Amino acid sequence: MGSEMKKVELEDGQSADIVSENVSKLKELFPDAFSEGGVNFDTLRQLLGDASVLDEGEEKYGLNWHGKKKARQIALTPSTGTLLPCPDESVNWENTQNLFIEGDNLEVLKLLQKSYANKVKMIYIDPPYNTGSEFIYPDKFVEGLETYLRYSGQKNEEGEWEISESGREKTGRKHGNWLSMMYPRLFLAKSLLRQDGVLFVSIDDNEVGNIKGVLNEIFGEENFVGQMVWKKKYIGGKHAKHFVDLHEYVLVYAKNILDLPEILMDRPAAELEKFKLEDEFFDERGKYYTRPLKSNLGLRKTLIYPIEMPDGTIIDTQWMVARETFDQLVKDGRIVFMKKRDGTYNVHRKYYQNDGGGSVKVPSLIDEVSNADGKVEMKSLFQIQEGREIPFDNPKPTEFISYLMKPVLGKNDIVLDFFAGSASTAHTALKLNCSDSGNRKYILVQLPEICPDNSPAREQGYSTISDVAKERLRKVKENLLDGLKMDNLDLGFKVFKLSSSNIRAWNPDRTDLEESLLSHEEHLVEGRSEQDVLYELLLKRGVDLAVPIESREVAGKNIYSIGYGVLFACLDESIAKEQVEDIAQGIIAWYGELAPSSDTHVFFRDSAFRDDVSKTNMAAILEQNGITHVRSL
Hints:
Elements (H helix, E strand, L loop, with lengths): L5 E2 L10 H12 L4 E2 L2 E2 L1 H8 L19 H9 L4 E5 L13 E4 L2 H7 L1 H4 L3 E6 L19 H7 L13 H8 L2 H18 E11 L4 H12 L4 E8 L15 E8 L9 E3 L2 H5 L8 E2 L2 E7 L11 E5 L5 E5 L4 H9 L3 E5 L5 E8 L6 E3 L3 E2 L4 H11 L16 H8 L8 E4 L6 H13 L4 E6 L9 H4 L5 H17 L12 E7 L12 H7 L10 H11 L8 E6 L2 E6 L4 E4 L9 H15 L6 E4 L7 H13 L4 E4 L1
Parallel strand pairs: 1-26, 5-20, 5-21, 6-7, 6-19, 8-18, 19-20, 24-25, 25-26
Antiparallel strand pairs: 2-3, 4-21, 7-9, 8-9, 10-17, 11-12, 12-16, 13-14, 15-16, 22-23, 23-24
């Protein structure tokens, strides 16, 4: 038989190679610019037809900092890590479509590229603000915070601090370090968004200008939607030297603003109150309220023009709208002349309750919810007694995130937060699902940052920030289910943890190659479970992590079907020669039942086969029955 079972190497199991994909796209557009030596830039310049397109000058408009080139390279470097499933820490593991991932978000974003590219509708992030504290997000694959502290030179191999607290703070104050941390994450996040997707970034005054420059570069200035202002508190300034800091910003970018639909919100409750009026504010169109058309704003000559009143008098003053708009409002029956007690008139504009189907444009000023509301909310959820602190500093209020989320996130869409903190974003999505029977799904990513000794979190039994977030989601489930009868509501979450690949790297000992070959007979990392391997296959083959995994027993071996037949796997440690036919036929029968629309891949443990003949026979039987992608691990 000519069939052969290809062996999966570590490089086959890496995340999406963005550079290779970009080169392939360029080669499709300009094949003449490529030769065996790579890209011929002179030819590319000629094909573009305008040398100015390739800006090679030294003086360019844009944001630059020391380390930017490295940050871009980091974003383009594939990850060879994986996400290990943790069913014991999860809620409703078998059925939930929500994900909670522990680990460095840079590596996690790389690992999500194949499975979630162009699938996320909304991303909201509240990154660590650059206020002088250390950054704990390494740009190198790590398995935990202690590894990072050694990598960054803050601790030695014995776990002792190498630099002082003041030294760490000094490093954190540099804009370049913060931008280098943010750039690759935002770069990778963009590709996860759908074409009509939207990114929201909470930020303060320290970096709003810089991060906007980075976002303009990554998303394109033309995809800037707006800059919102959140009035996060109403009092303060006791220690302010100049201005009282009462606000933060939210920068909003579309992946492609041409695909972004109009952003509308339900009428605010305060505005709905205006429609509870007497019958005289009701006509054939329904209820309405009025507001004076006369303007008290600063002088604008284009808004000054005469309007004739019903009694023939003329009022020549500045109005809220231009003359053309006024004339159109008159035609639409939206202007009313209201007679005063002295017999003179005021000009008013009508606002109907049913305008826009009950929806209005979203104001860029958010002032109906304060930062304190987030603390109150968490205090109630965790049942914190009076006088004690919540286990997380300054959680974002769900009403604030709802203000952003509700107008853009459809009932079946995915929201991603890769600086998850205390899980306010997930809490918000679940509350919205409860309110409208939606099925919004979330992906959270949070580094297992160690809670400081003597902190409220430690005192309450939480070791890491991610522990706090997971417990919050458990409490949200209990809180939302209380009194509800919604069997289809997904309040669960799957927990995954970032780790090294299940596939062993080939690191031979040059002084003892024979021993190296013998030790590498087993291609998978010792101690990893079949479930660990299955989820790495999902990631590296671009399958959603929430798809169902089913199993059947064939010839005494467990056979797994992943994603309704997109993948099959038998990861048993031993497959005898006489079992090959039965296992192959079991897979073929199951494959026929499911009839997947895309190509099917089948995986086996390489060391399970006693000889190459058995392995070749397995591949041949499957390929003869239409399953051509057969691999060994």
